[in-house]
Write a structure and sequence with these properties.
Structural class: mainly beta
Radius of gyration: 28 Å
Mean pLDDT: 89
CATH architecture of the largest domain: Beta Barrel
Helix content: under 10%
Strand content: over 45%
CATH topology of the largest domain: Porin
Low-confidence stretches: 1-14, 16-31
Number of domains: 2
Strand order of the largest sheet: 11-12-13-14-15-16-17-18-19-20-21-22
Largest sheet: 12 strands, antiparallel, barrel
Number of helices: 3
CATH class of the largest domain: Mainly Beta
């Protein structure tokens, strides 16, 4: 009987092994879970990001992420290392060890941790087990830059054949109190009716350089220059340098660098246009502009810009009005679907050209 009592059936051994594995997995999951204490409640899950405004946190139970302001965070601890970019080109790569006197502790242990002022945090993201990757190092080096690269194509083969494409690039370096924007785009299109020669319908190059300086949280100054070539409008060059001041009429801070806003600006400008054939038109103008940006549900973003450039000596008959609007919707990772609308009205176009031109495009945008 003693020997029989020591025997275990295969089914019982399997059940015991399953229980042990479940306990070990549960313990590992608990050990790997990050902890955030907010309003006296300890939350378990995963800290997914940091900024000067607060944290993003994925709870252990449920779907989606929470955005928690630092004012509501009493303590924070992570199992994995974080890449924390802060201050002036400074970086710390280690687990988060808590908060102390308004400072974030980043290090192997609280006594030896680096103390980082919350207001100086630019960004923070979890690192992999192997330490900083190429992407992490690139993020550190280009921490003040973001932007997008857009591409779109259209093709039709029918009674009328059409082809076209659009490429656009924009990047901005933001480091308080300055911003530098660089942008360029090219669009091209053709059309061929049955029995006729192929004709160009789009042929335009745009370029922009713009700098801004914040005097106060709402008041800023700017200087910019843009250039345009448009083969369809018989415009070999349009150059528009301008300077001025702007004011943020309304702003809603979201998290990190994201915000909803409406702003207006004004200043002196000069418009120079040279047409095919050599004729020119130039005038001093008042530059009046407005911009807006708004984040929609599911990560979509709408942006809009308008500038109105009437001649100082001929306010009602010689002017340029340009409007641009865009809607981007996230697809996978950094890839977005983007819809763009560009409208330009030139009251004094080249001989034979129409005053208004409008362009609609739907394509893909890679953001960083």
């Amino acid at each position: 009987m003693g020997e029989l009592g020591n025997e275990r059936s295969p089914r019982g051994a399997s059940r015991t092994l399953a229980i042990v594995l479940a306990v070990l997995v549960g313990c590992a999951a608990t050990a790997a879970a990050d902890e955030v204490t907010s309003k006296g409640t300890v939350l378990h899950g995963k800290v997914t990001g940091l900024s000067s405004a607060g944290i993003t946190f994925a709870p252990e139970y449920g779907a989606g992420e929470l955005t928690i302001e630092w004012a509501n965070v009493e303590d924070i601890k992570t199992d994995a290392s974080f890449q924390v970019l802060y201050g002036d080109e400074q970086e710390s790569d280690a687990p988060l060890q808590g908060l102390s006197d308004g400072k974030l502790l980043v290090g192997a242990s609280p006594p030896t941790a680096t103390q980082i002022d919350l207001a100086t945090i630019y960004a923070g993201l979890p690192l992999g087990a192997g330490g900083p990757s190429f992407g992490d190092r690139a993020r550190s080096y280009w921490r003040y830059w973001d932007g997008s690269f857009d591409v779109g194509f259209n093709f039709q083969q029918a009674t009328t054949d059409t082809t076209g494409f659009l490429v656009a690039f924009q990047t901005q370096r933001s480091k308080d109190p300055t911003r530098l924007t660089l942008a360029a785009s090219y669009r091209y299109g053709t059309q061929k009716a049955k029995g006729q020669d192929r004709q160009q319908t789009q042929d335009q190059v745009l370029g922009l350089v713009r700098g801004e300086y914040d005097f106060t949280p709402r008041l800023y100054g700017y200087a910019s220059g843009d250039a345009t070539y448009d083969g369809i409008q018989a415009l070999s060059l349009r150059a528009v340098p301008k300077v001025g001041a702007g004011y943020v009429v309304w702003q809603e801070d979201l998290d990190g660098e994201r915000r909803n806003f409406v702003q207006v600006e004004a200043g002196p400008s000069w418009v120079y246009e040279r047409y095919f054939g050599g004729s020119t038109n130039d005038y001093f103008a008042v530059a009046l502009g407005a911009s807006a940006g708004y984040y929609l549900p599911y990560g979509a973003h709408f942006d809009w810009h308008m500038d109105y450039l009437p001649a100082v000596d001929n306010f009602t008959s010689d002017y340029l009005l340009r409007t641009e609007a865009g809607l981007s919707v996230p697809l996978v990772g950094p890839i977005n679907a983007k819809f763009s609308l560009l409208d330009e009205y030139d009251s004094t176009p080249a001989p034979g050209a129409v005053r208004n031109s409008i362009f609609l495009a739907l394509g893909l945008s890679i953001a960083w």
